Amino acid sequence: MNHSRFALITGASSGIGNCFARALAERGKSVILVARSEDKLHRLAAELGGAHQVRIEVMPFDLSVAGAGKALADAIKARRLETDWVINNAGFGARGEFWKIPLARQLDMIHLHLNAMMELTHAFVPAMVEWREGGIINVSSMTSFQPMGYFAMYAATKAFMTSFSMGLAEELRPYGVRVVTLCPGGTRTNFVVEGDTANRRRFPGGPQPPEEVVREALASLDQGGGLVVPRWPNKLTVFAQRFLPRETVAKMAARFSAPPRP
Ligand SMILES: NC(=O)c1ccc[n+]([C@@H]2O[C@H](COP(=O)([O-])OP(=O)(O)OC[C@H]3O[C@@H](n4cnc5c(N)ncnc54)[C@H](OP(=O)(O)O)[C@@H]3O)[C@@H](O)[C@H]2O)c1
Fold first, then answer.
1. Is the pTM of this model over 0.85?
2. In this structure, is residue 1 part of a structural domain?
3. In a domain, 193, yes or no
């Protein structure tokens, strides 16, 4: 691991991104912290800076705005912060019937989950290829493996993410650049799912601590990258659905995701 270069973490103010920041600072890796909540980022930076010998940069950005990923990459390059790890993690969910969720919110999600990921990856990969080292962790989701009624846009953006990330991994492997496609199931964070209902049916197993998710992702990065579905019940679910017709899987997923009938 190169200690003079930075790891960029989007969504570092909370949950999985916050745990990535802590874990990397502990390993001696300098970090660039990105999210909208500037106060939370500064608090985290002060805490990590006091505990570890690393450089910490705070860059508040709203990545759901068109072109924000490119603007962030330009700002990082203008500050001459060499970046060899990119963790595309920032995200939110929106549950409900697609046509009832405001279109603007769904377009925000596309910008945040997809455009920002593409813009940041496109901006930083060329230097990683030149250095013959680097790492990308794309935080997708277990929902990426099946269509999911009542969570359709979220699952579709994550399906894009998983597909793109796994394809990119193969392109970058010959250059020594590692890609982790991280697909967590329920994780105990502040994850915002707009339109969620308290008494909706949930997948069994209970939420997983984000520290465990991050540990598995970093272990995979250390070993060369790959697809990570944390926790064995989640692995089993993803594996088992390959033996069912896709329409059956979609029906089952929508039944789980649907709001309770009045
Ligand atoms: N928790 C789960 O059950 C679960 C399961 C599977 C996958 N995931 C994925 O894990 C990732 C991290 O989520 P989490 O569970 O850690 O939730 P979280 O605690 O809510 O963290 C989400 C992070 O994204 C940032 N963010 C949200 N909108 C943003 C925007 N427009 N611009 C910049 N940053 C933004 C938030 O910061 P600000 O609000 O300060 O901007 C926050 O730091 C997401 O991509 C999510 O889809 C979560």
1. yes
2. no
3. yes
Task: Tell the residue number behind the tokens 């705005």, with chain if given.
Answer: 65
Q: Answer yes or no: is the C-beta of 62 below 6 A from any ligand 1 atom.
A: yes
pLDDT digits (tens, 9 = 90+) for 104-122: 999 999 999 999 999 999 9
To which residue do tokens 């789980």 refer? 256
Residue 157, in any domain of the structure: yes
CA proximity to 69, closest of 100, 127, 110 = 110
In short, whether 88's Cβ falls inside 6 Å of ligand 1 is: no
Residue 131, SS3? helix
Is 242 exposed, middle or buried, given 0-12, 13-18 or 19+ CB atoms closer than 10 A? exposed
pLDDT tens-place string over residues 164-175: 999 999 999 999
3-state secondary structure of 59: strand
Counting the structural domains of the chain, the total is: 1
